[in-house]
Amino acid sequence: MPQALWSAKRERQYQHIKDSLLERGKDEGTAEEIAARTVNKERAQHGESKTANPRTLRATPAPVRGGRNSHRGPQGRTRDQLYEDAKRQGIKGRSRMNKQQLEEAVGR
């Protein structure tokens, strides 16, 4: 609860993000900082703050982005995600493919 100006919704959002980060093994200070920054960014994008970084205002909000930037690390996309892409592309034999074969077939 770092900000007195936050609405009840933003307080719940902060607590939810913080709890999630703690469950994933982040330390208390890091979890609080990430949660506060995330809530403040959401507030700025929704016009709830007096000042905001122009880059923040141009960024696509997380609910709209819908995970578009996720799964780009060393593991990449999940097999299920690749399977759904293959399904959309109409790739034959997709149900018998493993993750590597799906990656090659989908072309990612």
Provide an overview of this structure.
This protein is mainly α and 108 residues long. It folds into 2 domains: 1-70, no CATH class; 71-108, no CATH class. 57% of the residues lie in helices and 0% in strands. The chain has helices at residues 8-23, 28-45, 54-58, 62-65, 79-89, 99-106. α1 packs antiparallel against α2 (28-45) and α5 packs parallel to α6. The radius of gyration is 19 Å and the shape is elongated.
Helicity, in percent? 55-70%
Structural class: mainly alpha
Pick out the low-confidence regions: none
Principal-axis shape equals elongated
Radius of gyration: 19 Å
Strand content: under 5%
Q: Work out the count of structural domains.
A: 2
Quote the average pLDDT.
84
Number of helices: 6
Counting DSSP E segments of at least 2 residues, the number of strands comes to 0
Major sheet, described briefly?
A: none
User: Which sequence of SSEs, written as H and E, runs from N to C?
Assistant: HHHHHH
